[in-house]
Design brief:
- The structure holds two protein chains of two kinds.
- By secondary structure, chain A is an all-alpha fold.
- Chain A has one domain: Orthogonal Bundle (Helix Hairpins).
- Chain A contains three helices and no strands.
- The longest helix of chain A is centred in the C-terminal third of the chain and has 31 residues, at about 60-90.
- Chain A is elongated, with a radius of gyration of 17 Å.
- By secondary structure, chain B is an all-alpha fold.
- Chain B contains 27 helices and two strands.
- Chain B has a two-stranded antiparallel ribbon with strand order 1-2.
- In chain B, helix 4 (about 115-135) runs antiparallel to helix 5 (about 135-155) and helix 6 (about 165-195) runs antiparallel to helix 8.
- The N and C termini of chain B lie far apart (about 75 Å).
- Classes of the chains: A mainly alpha, B mainly alpha.
- The interface of A and B includes residues 25 and 27 of A.
């Protein structure tokens, strides 16, 4: 039984939805961060699947770009998280709400 | 060489301003100021009278310093030129200026702003000489503005006097009105010459720089007809009238004369130098310089003549009733300037310049004499508190008698020749620019003015130098802290020597321009040097019927054809048999001119007689209120112009336009932004997950749109 394109897309959709729901419901900033990574990788999976299906290498190139951006984002994001933690003694995002007027 | 004439006073001004203010040594400041003007005077005389000097050759002396502005076909040089006209001006400006500088070293002694006064005065000399020697309109305008600035600074020199600052401001603003016309005139000159293909604002041909004179170009255009609508036609008449507006402002003619009487708030040497001898005659200089323009614009000339005559009469009547010695002289100056413009208006530019020169002598003399009186009377200017001063100030009295006789037009004294020349030229003015009968009417106005001049000047002299000694009563009532009685005293040598020199010039200065009709009476036929010198650089009015003895040489027009008889048009060649190029006037003309001269003399003597008998008996005679209050001109201007502008500015421009419209726009804009921000600030609720939800909602809406309307919605994007 040969894996179909739709299988990959379905898996990708499931992973993306888990990521979205995670970002929405989680308060812990680390968890939210991981969920964002999950969404990015769900998209990566879609890229790779289409790349293989259409025999076009462009999709895989995009994956590399996304991974690079994700790595940079992880570095910056973790830095921000540490800075928030030092100020607030907490990882709850609802505590970091001083932007509100 | 020419450049040193203007830069020497500038250097003097800079030295006095930078060094003089530190050393505060009156001797040092006086030497720098007088020395720098002295250098200018010597150079000016040398350049004018050397063997190929400006007054002796037909070629002007040029000094091109640098090209100032060059944009496209527009070109203005910083270049100086001394031809016969500017030469004569430069001579009397530097010489009279030097005398007044010397006088001022005595008059201003002990004043705390000594260095400042002389720095301004030297700066004025620089500006005035730039005005006169500048070889194009724009450089002339630089000097024009420079003298205006210095006039402003010097009128407001007594910073602790209440009337000085408003007077200075008034002079400045009235001059701005005139300058507006002058600038437009210059622009129109440029446009007109551009249209002829030789764009230029230069007065002179400068072959080495490839500049062609704008005046030559205009002189080649056919004169415009005598019609009122030529004024706004945009041609030569428009140029002439705009330039004349500039002259009205600078030379204090109706309707902009109001600044000059107030300008007497400045120190008296300033009144003598700027507001009598030099600056106010800049308008006459400009008209004479642009004679090529004016002789092509008969309508403008007619207006010049009317305004000049009206001003002459108007100011003379006011001068009759003033009690401040300087105010009388100020109105007299306005009146005499009106005379000069009347002469320009009938095409007698040479006579006008002649009167400028003699007026510079005798009016400077009279002003300095009044300064000497004021000095001797311890800063008393009201003639009602003078009287009998001839015993106390004999030199001032004698010198002022010379000035008085000169301005009244008593024969031999300078004013007689120039005034008589003007009246004669007005009498014979041709049909070119005057309607029938206008010449005689103008002559009548001039004659009445001459009578009034003699009356009010006699009144001034009688009230000041003759009669009872009224200063004691005045000083008895006045409160004087320093006890000793104020006897009038004669002024120091530094003041009396310039008076004597100027009195001498007022006496004999007119002999350089004795008209033929009078010189032929004494035999020997001495030539009219003044007219012969100036005639080649002044354009003459065409079609004057050949009666007018003004210059027949016409330097601006092309070479005249050799004709034997009388040529029909102006550029006549030399008359056969005449070595000088002047036609000998016919006997009838000579008789007529002599008769008119006799009438002038009678008028002058009558005026002096009236003044003498009326004011000898009643020196304090009350004069008509209307005249004493100067026809309420200041009040009328205040009510019709100044108050409407003030009210309009305050109620309209400030309260409605500035507060309502401009501030309104700004405030409405700012308030809108603030309100908008206040409304949408609630979107920032501060929870990260909330923002994520909004992003999700937005993504769902976009995806939902494409899912609903199908992929073809994307085609717009692809295209």
């Amino acid at each position: 039984m040969v894996p179909q394109l739709s299988w990959y897309l379905a898996l990708s959709a499931v992973l993306f939805t888990i990521g979205v729901v995670g970002v929405m419901v989680k308060r812990n900033v680390i968890s939210m961060f991981m969920c964002i990574e999950l969404m990015l990788n769900a998209v990566n999976l879609t890229f790779v699947a289409f790349s293989s299906f259409f025999r076009d290498v462009t999709g895989q190139l995009f994956v590399f770009i996304v991974m690079t951006v994700a790595a940079a984002e992880a570095a910056v994001g973790l830095g921000i998280i540490i800075a928030i933690f030092r100020n607030r003694e907490s990882l709850d995002v609802d505590d970091a709400s001083t932007l509100k007027l | 060489m020419l450049r040193y004439i203007i830069f020497a006073p500038l250097a003097g001004a800079v030295i006095n301003w930078l060094i003089g203010r530190r050393v505060r040594n009156e001797r040092f400041i006086g030497i720098v100021a007088c020395g720098s003007v002295g250098i200018s005077t010597i150079i000016a005389f040398y350049l004018a009278f050397k063997s190929d000097g400006a007054l002796r050759s037909t070629e002007p002396i040029m000094d091109h310093l640098w090209t100032w502005i060059q944009v496209g076909s527009f070109r203005a040089d910083f270049g100086l030129a001394m031809d016969r006209l500017s030469g004569i001006y430069a001579l009397f400006i530097t010489f009279v200026g030097l005398l007044i500088h010397i006088f001022a070293t005595g008059y201003m002694r002990g004043d705390s702003g000594y260095y400042r006064f002389f720095a301004y005065l030297n700066l004025f000399m620089f500006a005035m000489l730039t005005l006169v020697l500048g070889d194009n309109f724009l450089l002339m305008f630089v000097g024009w503005e420079g003298v205006g600035l210095c006039s402003y600074l010097l009128i407001g020199y007594y910073i602790d006097k209440d009337e000085a600052a408003p007077a200075a401001k008034k002079a400045f603003i009235a001059n701005r009105v005139g300058d507006w016309g002058f600038v437009l005139g210059i622009m129109l000159v440029f446009f007109l010459t551009s249209a002829k293909g030789v764009a230029s604002i230069s007065f002179f041909d400068k072959p080495t720089q490839g500049v062609i004179s704008a005046l030559t170009t205009i002189a080649h255009i056919t004169p415009e007809p005598f019609a009122l609508n030529m004024l706004w036609y945009g041609g030569i008449t428009s140029i002439a009238i705009l330039l004349f507006i500039g002259a009205i402002g600078k030379s204090a003619q109706i309707p902009l004369f109001v600044w000059l009487p107030d300008a007497m708030a400045g120190p008296t040497p300033v009144s003598a130098l700027i507001h009598a001898a030099t600056m106010v005659t800049a308008g006459v200089y400009m008209l004479a310089r642009c004679s090529a323009i004016f002789t092509h614009a008969p309508t403008a000339m007619f207006i010049v003549a009317i305004i000049g005559a009206a001003t002459a009469l108007f100011a003379a009547t006011i001068g009759l009733a003033q009690n401040d010695i300087k105010k009388v002289l100020a109105y007299s100056t306005i009146s005499q300037l009106g005379y000069m413009f009347m002469a320009c208006g009938v095409g007698a530019f040479v006579a006008a310049i002649f009167h400028v020169m003699t007026h510079a002598f005798f009016k400077a003399q009279l002003f300095l004499g009044s300064g000497s009186v004021i000095h001797g009377m311890h800063h008393e200017q009201d003639m009602r508190r003078m009287g009998g001063l001839r015993k106390y100030m004999p030199i001032t009295w004698l010198t002022m008698v010379c000035g008085w006789l000169a301005i009244c037009g008593v024969p031999i004294w300078a004013g007689f020749f120039s005034k008589d020349e003007i009246l004669w030229k007005v009498w014979v003015a041709g049909p070119f620019n005057l309607p029938a009968g206008a010449a005689k009417a103008l002559w009548f106005v001039g004659a009445v003015t001459a009578l009034l001049t003699a009356v009010y000047m006699t009144r001034l002299m009688v009230m000041t130098f003759w009669g009872s000694e009224r200063f004691r009563d005045a000083h008895a009532t006045a409160d004087h802290a320093h006890g000793h009685p104020h006897e009038p005293h004669e002024s120091p040598l530094s003041m009396t020597i310039p008076l004597i020199v100027l009195a001498t010039l007022s006496t004999v200065g007119g002999l350089v321009g004795v008209p033929y009709a009078i010189s032929s009476m004494v035999g020997g036929h001495p030539q009219n040097y003044f007219e012969e010198t100036l005639a080649p650089v002044i354009s003459s009015v065409p079609n004057t019927g050949g009666e007018n003895a003004t210059a027949k040489l016409h330097w601006l027009t092309p070479e005249p054809q050799a004709v034997d008889g009388k040529p029909a048009v102006a550029p006549a060649g030399e008359a056969p048999g005449s070595a000088t190029g002047h036609e000998t006037p016919s006997p009838q003309e000579i008789n007529e001119e002599r008769l008119l001269a006799l009438v002038s003399v009678l008028i002058a003597l009558t005026g002096i007689g009236i003044g003498w008998f009326v004011f000898q008996h009643q020196p304090l005679r009350a004069m008509p209120r209307l005249l004493e209050n100067k026809y309420y001109v200041d009040e009328i201007y205040d009510a019709t112009i100044i108050q409407p502008i003030k009210v309009g500015s305050r109620e309209g421009l400030w309260k409605i336009f500035d507060l309502g419209v401009i501030d309104g726009i700004i405030h409405t804009l700012g308030n809108t932004v603030v309100k908008f921000g206040r409304t949408i600030r609630y979107m920032q609720f501060g929870f990260v997950r909330g923002y994520a939800a909004i992003i999700l909602a937005g993504a769902l809406i976009i995806i939902g749109y494409f899912a609903y309307s199908g992929a073809h919605a994307l085609r717009f994007l692809v295209k």
